[in-house]
């Protein structure tokens, strides 16, 4: 949108005529990606992109979308509110554990039941942890979130009679849509088709919801707090209350991701509560680009592929990932989305 | 009745008595300049009035109510807004959003996460109108960080003004800008203050500016009020010239 299209002079002199809201069009490549994701299961055997449609790849993409939700939710804190949480694994993991415990003790098998339990558990946890953490910023905030999440990790590890310790909790294949879609015989088919679409739908809902929150006056207030806490206070924003709200929303959506992860993985272990998993969420977000709304989605998907293939190549995969992260921060500080933007900008500049 | 009445204000930082027994009043629609050398206590006084600092002693009444114990937010709702000496803006937000945020906050809509900021045409139009009053309308889409110093100073005032206060406290709105820009900034401030019947307290060093625009001048020295009066009275006050000359 060029500036001349929105002549501000007209806004002043002809206020009513200016009453057309400025809504940024959804970029064409986002629409293309969404359509591709939608028809992907039917593209098996199609030249060039057929390999992407194999059941294995579709399950990989499902993992990627789940991580995409977590990274999007995480970025409401990092990119929008300016708070670097190093404990987001706790919301992801607690939701997965809530699912596991629901199966173990109440024999629930409905995915919607899982989502409700996962969401509520991460929300409650985020409300409590948030009340402690958001009074601090920068390194103090990061350390506090890390410490609190490690407490929960230790609990999951030590209360093994409840959580099965390092063995974790098994999550059977759930029924979907309140039992409308029953437990299937073919698990691979279920995960790569039915569950793929389920996750895609939930992903879409979460993306729209978080997008709305980010673009709301509330989202603007978060950005204001990120940019200048004192000034935010002096336009009447109760800084810590907004930080807390952002923390709770972020935690709850991360919980949605954790719940979706549980049946996909089939097992919930303390790994996903550990601080290194929090680090992964940070990695995904930075990889995709935390300065844009959609960057974390790309980051979540890309990270999952990266980890899957890097693990295959070397046993020192963590080191390789570490090197990639360092290189990334140095070469592409704006992440994948920043690099893409740069390429598109250059190409259109040349034309 | 005075709009603002502060009595016996004291604030110390360790051994330093930054504000030492100051009585200060602002009448409705009055433009007051607060002058004095560096360290005289001007900014501390503004911080006490705006709620950034709590006084060690003394009372502040605004619009007939005691606001001494009120938070920053409560004072803003009561009608006191301020700008800062070192410009405080939302640097990554554009100029329009800086002003719009103040409008959203004032109207209590920042608590609503499920409405789109862009859809609020009323807030947008009001923000554009305010930018027009400060001559910033052509910069609406520029991130605040990308503005020139003079423009940043104006935007800082515009953000405070968008809260529609009864009293606006401006801490050195023209510091760090060239002489020509100083005039532009002061003209913009004076015109909104007069047209909207606001009261303003402006901390200012440039005595030419002070004498041109003020209804009343309050001179502070070493944490206390040394002299106050109309520009003519201040011009004739020997204590003031002694301090000013001493400073020079």
UniProtKB/TrEMBL annotation, chain A:
Record keywords: Cell membrane, Membrane, Transmembrane, Transmembrane helix
Membrane topology: Multi-pass membrane protein
Transmembrane segments: 28-53, 59-78, 114-132, 139-162, 195-219, 240-261, 281-306, 318-344
Superkingdom classification of source: Bacteria
Pfam families in the cross-refs: BPD_transp_2
A GO CC term assigned to this protein in UniProt: plasma membrane
InterPro entries, per database record: ABC_transp_permease, LivM-like
Gene Ontology MF term list: branched-chain amino acid transmembrane transporter activity
Chief location category: membrane
Subcellular location(s) per record: Cell membrane
The name this protein goes by in its record: Branched-chain amino acid ABC transporter permease
Originating organism: Candidatus Segetimicrobium genomatis
